[in-house]
From TrEMBL:
<dbReference type="Pfam" id="PF03171">
    <property type="entry name" value="2OG-FeII_Oxy"/>
</dbReference>
<dbReference type="Pfam" id="PF14226">
    <property type="entry name" value="DIOX_N"/>
</dbReference>
<protein>
    <submittedName>
        <fullName>1-aminocyclopropane-1-carboxylate oxidase homolog 1-like</fullName>
    </submittedName>
</protein>
<dbReference type="GO" id="GO:0046872">
    <property type="term" value="F:metal ion binding"/>
</dbReference>
<comment type="similarity">
    <text>Belongs to the iron/ascorbate-dependent oxidoreductase family.</text>
</comment>
<dbReference type="InterPro" id="IPR044861">
    <property type="entry name" value="IPNS-like_FE2OG_OXY"/>
</dbReference>
<dbReference type="InterPro" id="IPR026992">
    <property type="entry name" value="DIOX_N"/>
</dbReference>
<keyword id="KW-0560">Oxidoreductase</keyword>
<keyword id="KW-0408">Iron</keyword>
<dbReference type="InterPro" id="IPR005123">
    <property type="entry name" value="Oxoglu/Fe-dep_dioxygenase_dom"/>
</dbReference>
<dbReference type="InterPro" id="IPR027443">
    <property type="entry name" value="IPNS-like_sf"/>
</dbReference>
<feature type="domain" description="Fe2OG dioxygenase">
    <location>
        <begin position="218"/>
        <end position="321"/>
    </location>
</feature>
<keyword id="KW-0479">Metal-binding</keyword>
<dbReference type="GO" id="GO:0051213">
    <property type="term" value="F:dioxygenase activity"/>
</dbReference>
Length: 375
């Protein structure tokens, strides 16, 4: 059904011609943000064409850019019986693709399903109920908004998000919305356990003591970032999540059955297909930094889709912007005369602030590379 009204809460729903000189992106971004209803609010209003702020660059839709090679598979690693071959597979995936999937990871399927259901419940509740949590204040117990980098990124993504930081500073669970409170607390504890195991496997894959990465507190911080991608009336013009790398140590992702996640491999986009009951793991920029490029933080994106909503839950292992004096640089045990440090030391806070200041699609790692004069 076409939209009768041209605005929703002051935000224009009328698509603007690319040639229209009156288009002023900052004004439209502010108007969209002020609705506090997100992309879901636009869909609820019945739009049939997307507003101009969501137009994605044409190069995002180049079909020649998508791999049709069937031999490229994202490894599925079974944790039921962990042995040397498990570590070898983790190492190979981390060095080559930066992505792998886990099965038999210890989180029951019914917990995974309840977590996905909770994301849908939150985003599909009455708009007025959602609005009370809409904020860009990173100190709040639950942070709900559309596009954390709305005002800094070149492209506005077709998705809404709420986030819950469960470590290192735990908010009182009573301050969380009842509609998703219990599962957020439960699921975050379970993801933390998966993370600890992954850091052990990654430590061994680096030839280090299994406790190494946990001992240097790679598992100290965890945030659950819960994405909601409403169905898009013009998925050929929008992007769900722009091409980017993650600014953490690792991400443990729960995705639903719809798909749309792709990684950049040999300059082609490759699908990361949903596997029932699996968790997707990817190497983040901080892990690439401390491993001195041994493990790869790979570019990835999420396509917009006419099917939907798509939901996903990213377990982000990082202390983000929390104050810290702890410095992270390339692990000294991995360095040698032939393999000198590529990056300078940084705090996780400074790394995170740099990432947030420029938004998705820019290289935070590049900012921390040593120059020839430093080496």
């Amino acid at each position: 059904m076409a939209v009768a009204a041209s605005t929703v809460n002051g935000f224009s729903l009328t698509p603007v011609s690319k040639a229209d000189e009156n288009y002023h992106r900052p004004t439209d971004l502010k108007a969209f943000d002020d609705t506090k209803a997100g992309v879901k609010g636009l869909v609820d209003a019945g739009i049939t064409e997307i507003p101009r702020i969501f137009y994605s660059p044409p190069e995002n839709f180049n079909s020649d850019d998508v791999s049709s090679e069937t031999q490229i598979h994202i490894p599925v690693i079974d944790l039921e019986h962990i042995d040397k071959s498990t570590v070898d597979r983790v190492r190979e995936a981390s060095e080559k693709l930066g992505f792998f999937q886990l099965i038999n990871h210890g989180i029951p399927v019914d917990v995974l399903e309840e977590m996905k259901d909770a994301v849908r419940r939150f985003h599909e509740q009455e708009t007025e109920s959602r609005k009370q949590y809409y904020t860009r204040d990173l100190t709040m117990p639950l942070i709900y908004n559309s596009n954390f980098d709305l005002y800094s990124a070149a492209t506005t993504n077709w998705r809404d998000t709420f986030g819950y930081i469960s470590a290192p500073k735990l908010h009182n669970p009573a301050s969380l919305p009842e509609i998703c409170r219990d599962i957020l607390v439960d699921y975050s504890k379970r993801v933390m356990e998966v993370g600890k195991l992954l850091f052990e496997l990654l430590s061994e894959a680096l030839g280090l003591n299994p406790n190494y990465l946990n001992d240097i507190d790679c598992n100290e911080g965890l945030a659950l970032v819960c994405h909601y991608y409403p169905q898009c009336p013009q998925p050929n013009l929008a992007i769900g999540t722009s091409e980017h790398t993650d600014n953490d140590f690792i991400t443990v992702l729960l995705q639903d059955h719809i798909g749309g996640l792709q990684i950049r491999y040999e300059n082609k986009w490759v699908d990361v297909p949903p596997v029932a009951g699996a968790l997707v793991v990817n190497i983040g920029d901080l892990m690439q930094l401390i491993t001195n490029d041994k493990f790869k933080s790979v570019k990835h994106r999420v396509l917009a889709n006419k099917e939907g909503p798509r939901v996903s839950v990213a377990g982000v292992f990082s202390t983000l912007s929390f104050p810290t004096s702890k410095l992270y640089g390339p692990i000294k045990e991995l360095l040698s005369e032939d393999n000198p440090a590529i990056y300078r030391e940084t705090t996780v806070r400074d790394f995170s602030i740099q990432f947030r200041s420029v938004g998705l699609g820019t290289s935070t790692l590049q900012h921390f590379k040593l120059s020839e004069a430093d080496t």
